[in-house]
Design brief:
alpha+beta, Butyryl-CoA Dehydrogenase, subunit A, domain 3, Butyryl-CoA Dehydrogenase, subunit A, domain 2, 9 strands, 3 domains, 384 residues, four-stranded antiparallel β-sheet, 48% helix
Length: 384
């Protein structure tokens, strides 16, 4: 089975033509190297310009800034194909689905002209630094500060669990530009920090239980001076910007989770059909068929929901709680599918040489990043 066999309503013929380009790239340039990159604990920067050349990076960037000016459906296709065929977490979605929107929506004309063409081409890799040690999902409690000194900010603090942290050339750093104001969220700003700034240091490439190839890092800022013109949008509006972009970020996570779950399911059906136990195929046991039938039904519902959510996002109607619900539901489904599919692999499922084992480990974090699923329930519950 492939993603082509699913009845989708979110995409048109142009989307599907783009999908074939993405799929070839994933099968030829990403999948063959996934294990190698997992061992190295990083995806090489050299793969980014190759993706940029084919239009896989930041497809929504307007043409005047070097992009294709397409809709988010093209981003979603990259996410789906990457999760289904790529076998490696590249960091592309962080740049295309999250960072790009901040710069397009809130950046100055100078910032957009300077950074967006390089991001589209894969010449610049970006990260966004929100999380700090001890604060987790509570962004208002951040301690990293940016204090004015003449026409510069002086940044001090640290961040952790930062995707693309080792590879990033540009980091969008969430800081407190006012530590006294109440409510605290009014003191949050976003500042662009180039990785070559004096005082900026990368910490460890953190050792994770899954998604080994994705560099996830600690970052340190010690008297890092950047021009005040590096502030993204208005000072003190950072928290508002973060909240306004979260529906798309969380839908992006949901898309990848759904495609990853579909891949695990399809692989498991093939495994159960070929594997023999007690003289017959594992698929011929009622427990196996009933388990897979239940998962297939839920996956069918999941794809329909994703198309609904994508349609709402493209009409600028997806609400914060709807984005949270999508992230919550699809990542919980992903974990259910992964765990049951691993079980149906028996002892083979516990061996890292089988893809299901690596996928199971990689899926565990999706209920944590982008805001934990407990926080998602809290956000949804506030609107009841």
């Amino acid at each position: 089975m492939s993603l082509d066999s699913l009845a989708r309503t979110a995409y048109n013929d142009d989307h599907e033509a783009f999908r074939q380009t993405v799929r070839r790239f994933m099968l030829e340039e990403i999948a063959p190297h996934a294990a190698e990159w997992g061992e190295a604990k990083i995806v090489p920067k050299s793969i980014w310009p190759k993706a940029g050349e084919l239009g896989l990076l930041c497809p929504t960037v307007p043409e005047e800034y070097g992009g294709l000016g397409l809709d988010f459906g093209y981003n979603a296709i990259v996410d789906e194909e990457s999760a289904y065929y790529g076998g490696a977490t590249t960091g592309f979605s962080l740049q295309s689905d999250i960072v790009t929107n901040y710069i397009v929506s809130y950046g100055s004309e100078e910032q957009k002209k300077h950074w967006l063409p390089k991001m589209v081409a894969g010449e610049v890799i970006t990260a966004i630094a929100m999380t700090e040690p001890g604060t987790g999902s509570d962004l208002q409690a951040m301690r990293t500060t940016a204090k004015k000194d003449g026409n510069h900010y002086v940044i001090n603090g640290s961040k952790t669990y930062i995707t693309n942290g080792q590879n990033a050339d540009l980091i969008l750093v969430c800081v407190k530009t006012d530590t006294e104001i109440e409510p605290k969220w009014k003191g949050v700003s976003i500042v662009l920090v180039e990785a070559n700034r004096e005082g900026f240091k990368r910490g460890r490439n953190l050792d994770k239980i899954g998604q080994d190839e994705a560099d996830t890092s600690e970052l340190f800022f010690e008297d890092v001076r950047v021009p005040i013109t590096n502030c993204l949008g208005e000072e003190g509006k950072g928290f508002v910007y973060l909240m306004s972009e979260l529906p798309q970020e969380r839908l992006s996570i949901a898309v990848s989770a759904q495609a990853s779950a579909q891949r695990a399911f399809d692989m498991t059906v093939g495994f159960a059909r070929d594997r023999k136990a007690f003289g017959k195929a594992v698929l011929d046991f009622q427990n196996t068929r009933f388990t897979l039938a239940d998962l297939k039904s839920k996956l069918q519902v999941g794809w329909a929901h994703l198309d609904w959510a994508l349609a709402r996002l493209l009409r600028h109607e997806l609400t914060a709680e709807e984005g949270a619900a999508a992230k919550l539901w699809h990542t919980e489904l992903q974990w259910e599918v992964m765990d049951k599919c691993l079980q149906l692999h028996g002892g083979a499922g516990y061996m890292n040489e089988y893809p299901i084992a690596r996928m199971w480990r990689g899926a565990r974090v999706t209920r944590i990043f982008g805001g934990t699923n407990e926080i998602m329930k809290e956000l949804i519950g506030r609107k009841l």
